[in-house]
Amino acid sequence: MNEPLLKVKELKTHFQTERGWVTAVDGISFHIDEGEILGVVGESGCGKSVTSQSILRLFDEKYTAQYDGQILFNGEDLLQIPLNEMQHIRGNDISMIFQDPSSSLNPVYTIGGQVAESIMLHNNVSKAEAIEKAVALLAMTGIPSPEKRANEYPHQLSGGMLQRVMIATALACEPQLLIADEPTTALDVTIQAQILDLISDLNEKLNMGVMLITHDLGVVAQMCTRVVVMYLGQIVEEAEVNALFSNPLHPYTKGLLQSMPHLEGPRSEKLHVIEGSVPSLNNVPQGCRFAPRCLFADETCLKKAPVLEDIGGGQLVRCWHAQKIKEEEEGAYVAT
Ligand SMILES: Nc1ncnc2c1ncn2[C@@H]1O[C@H](COP(=O)(O)OP(=O)(O)OP(=O)(O)O)[C@@H](O)[C@H]1O
Ligand SMILES: [Mg+2]
Question: Which atom of ligand 1 is nearest to the CA of 99?
Fold first, then answer.
């Protein structure tokens, strides 16, 4: 069996804060195969961005951040290599699309110049060749009149266009792995769809693996084969997309799915939202982290933390009641 492209094992990311050390990502394990799109979902603050930025070791390890565990990329542990080698991997093998496009582009350089720069950093090509390749990449991301746009500055482009430029920059090195952190947040629906189409096209053409972080379960259903659901720094469920949508087993996943707007549902239907809010990292519940908000919680849940367990068919769930919920749902299915 082939080694996965990325295998994250028991990753922990700790931060030093004014109130002491906190563990924002607490023992996460998952993998991404070559050519696979993995979805990562969960409410705001559950650790999606910290996980993705930890893979690239973007936090300040000297003063404020510390990692534990393993991040195996093509079998090599990225947490063990010197930071200058990490720099090389960042631009060549793993690329990232950040949540906020404006922060990752330099306002004083032209769009084309920035994409070309990224190409020149990683390929032995002349400036003219790099600019030609940059224009081709901008065209590939669906930017109209790419030759003209290449000469413009970031402030001359709309949010959707900037997002495409960032995608072009991220793809300039033809990465084996693309990490896309909410690549379509804050974009209008039409542009969202175009950008997602573009990512799936490139995923097929380049056979690159994609870690797709999103709030939007509709996007997961459309794009991904497998999905991990995060809650308060941990994975609470991992499953094939079809299994997750047809048979979510963690009460948190069920809550997330119920909070999805149903297009075909009656207009007046009230959106179900999960009661309560995510506890702070300084105040992590002692037992199951979701227990204070969970309708299924009992004494055990409040006292003892459940582990992530295979409930069958490769569906992993971190819940004391997962087996019971599964049996009840199978029973209900047989009865109807
Ligand atoms: N540099 C840091 N120092 C201390 N705590 C941090 C740091 N970066 C993130 N955190 C904390 O880690 C937790 C996870 O944050 P993260 O940004 O990963 O959430 P997220 O799932 O990406 O949320 P969103 O959906 O809003 O983007 C949060 O509680 C956040 O406050
Ligand atoms: Mg985030």
Answer: 27
Concatenate the DSSP letters of all residues of 176-241 into one string. SEEEEESTTTTS-HHHHHHHHHHHHHHHHHH--EEEEE-S-HHHHHHH-SEEEEEETTEEEEEEEH
Which helix or strand (DSSP H or E) is residue 95 part of?
A: strand 94-97
Enter the tokens of residue 151: 């000469």
Single-letter residue type at 224: C
Residue 50 Cβ < 6 Å to ligand 1: yes
Helix (H, G, I), strand (E, B) or coil at 37: strand
Rounded Cα gap, residues 282 and 206, in angstroms: 42
Measured distance CA(125)–CA(102) in Å, rounded: 27
Residue 45 CB less than 6 A away from ligand 1: yes
Widest pairwise Cα distance in the chain: 69
Q: Where do the CATH 3.40.50.300 domains begin and end in the chain? A: 1-93+178-224
Q: What is the number of alpha carbons within 13 Å of residue 169 lying toward its C-beta?
A: 26
Neighbours of 159 (CB within 10 A): 15
Q: What does the DSSP assignment read for 111-164? A: HHHHHHHHHHHHS---HHHHHHHHHHHHHHTT-SSHHHHHTS-GGGS-HHHHHH
If one residue of 25, 49, 53 were mutated to test the ligand 1 pocket, choosing by the most ligand atoms within 8 A of its CB, it would be 49
- pLDDT, tens only, 84-122: 999 889 878 999 988 776 667 888 999 999 999 888 887
- What is the topology classification, in CATH, of domain 1-93+178-224? Rossmann fold (3.40.50)
* pLDDT tens profile 169-214: 888 878 999 999 998 776 677 777 878 887 898 899 889 999 999 9
